[in-house]
Amino acid sequence: FDAETLPFLNVAALLERMDVRVPAILGSEPDLGILVIEDLGDMTIQDYLKDASADDKTRRYAEAVALIGRMQEGGRRFASSRYQPFGLAFDVEKLSWELDFFLEHFVVQHRSTALTADRRSALRDEFELLASELAAEPRVFCHRDYHSRNLMWHRRELCVIDFQDARLGPDSYDLVSLLRDSYIDHGQDFVDQMIDAFVSLIPDAGRDFARRFDVMSVQRHLKALGTFGYQASVAGTTRYEGDVPRTLGYLNDVFERRPRFDRLRALLAPSIPELG
Questions:
Q1: Cα separations in angstroms, 178 against 129, 175, 273
Q2: Cβ-based neighbour number of residue 209 at 10 Å
């Protein structure tokens, strides 16, 4: 690899400037394809929560929310073409690609659905509306996969991993990833508490934030289902099968609150009865 352009090294350097704890780079041999990084142990936040008290959970998640605020502020301070995330964005093309990925790998392959041309076209119309709305949001730095399996608890400190795909996107993106995590159930009261904490840190986010959070949730959950479908149908692993019902449950929650998604729900329900 080229040490100057490897996304992991580039984004790690940016996050370090933001004072976000990431694995230290201990050494590298680019010509041999070897990168030596710090071992942060085995304790993800998902694992940590198994034995954590309610107060501990609240403290850790408050720290995780504060880190989102720090990354967004750092993104404003350190924006530069030298850092790759500032040349990438959740634009209409990227968001639409993820929704098409869901359609092919979850609906068509995983749920064995033969889509008529009319239904496929109608779904893509809904996807275009969703992608266009999200792409029009003011853009901030996003980790892109900020959830309980990518946050480590190491030496009593919250550390961030799997950040190499960072890019610009809506201010709700990382918070949706954290609070509507496909791997952990959070009650609505807890989610609301953490949303309030986020908005208190970033007052500009308060603009119709609950609605924007839900809109972002729909895209993010469909994207996750596409990944789960791909892993099952193409990669041949069932490790994510247990996470599908939770993710569909999150979608149903939003669909119940937001009638604007009634047409999308009706188009998906024949292939995904859980959404009916």
A1: 24, 5, 26
A2: 18
Q: What is the pTM of this model?
A: 0.96
* Dihedral (CA of 256, 132, 92, 269) sign: positive
CA 164 to the chain's CA centroid: 13
Give the span between the Cα atoms of 141 and 85, in whole angstroms: 7
- pLDDT digit string, tens, across residues 115-159: 999 999 999 999 999 999 999 999 999 999 999 999 999 999 999
Q: Which residue has the tokens 């807890």?
A: 190
Classified as helix, coil or strand, 135 is helix
Give the whole-angstrom CA distance, residue 83 versus residue 23: 18
Burial of 93 (0-12, 13-18, 19+ CB in 10 A): exposed
- Helix or strand or coil: residue 182? coil
- Expressed in angstroms, the distance from the first to the final Cα of the chain is 48
3-state secondary structure of 222: helix
Angle, helices 117-135/92-102, rounded to nearest 10 degrees: 140
pLDDT digits (tens, 9 = 90+) for 178-233: 999 999 999 999 999 999 999 999 878 877 999 999 999 999 999 999 999 999 99
Question: What HEC string does 159-181 produce?
Answer: EECCCCCCEEECCCHHHHHHHCC
